[in-house]
Amino acid sequence: MNERCVTYELKGQIAFIGLNRPEKRNAINRELFLQLAEAVAKAEEEANVGVIFGHGSQFSSGLDLAFAADDLLKMDPALRKRRPDLSRIAFDSIARGVIPWIAALHGPVVGAGFELAATAHVRVADETAFFALPECARGIFVGGGGSVRIQRLIGTSRMTDMMLTSRTYSAQDAEGFGAVQYLVAPGEALAKASELAQKIAGNAALSNYAVSAIMPRIADMPVDEGLFYERVAAEYIITAESSERMRAFLEKRSAPLERPANPGKE
Q: Is residue 266 annotated as a catalytic residue, yes or no?
């Protein structure tokens, strides 16, 4: 198949990866999984930050059910256990890779599309985005890490309800319970993701690596192991660049932190 399911563009230090099956609602099939994995590997080689977005009117409607039916129902059961886990190959390299990733979300963020969004370190949704996990209604179960990543984002009870009842949540809902960190006006998700990516790209590269690759692993550890790993990571990333950045702050050569807006005042 020669279908170009994923676009890739490097702009400065930022890699932009676009889901590119708009006529299929950016449904995720085998080719998209494979091309996504290739694009992520390329980004890790040449970019400091990655942005994932969807072409067309939505981020992703989820797993391509025609692909799933062919892949699962027509495959010899004895061979299933030997087939590569395409979602893990593509998604784990985002969630636990060497650069931070931002997901720019609009329209449906459903099923495997939600699972892909959950792999990103930062999620920006515009007001058209909505979230759903209709797997049970389709006779399947989440298979792209959602039982781990989405559950940790939104909690077991909420995820269970979404799967059992096909309940949908708006972008405003998702911001409220922590599934997304930023909510913007319609059509502004990619612009906001680009703005954040530029800011992140200005950080020390090793610090970004520690957050994107090490933090997810610490989240999986018991407290004592996590604290030990934190200490090792903190020592590892100290470089001459660290010293210069701290001096720049002390000498007022770097920008101060922005104060949060006070919602109680104009």
A: no
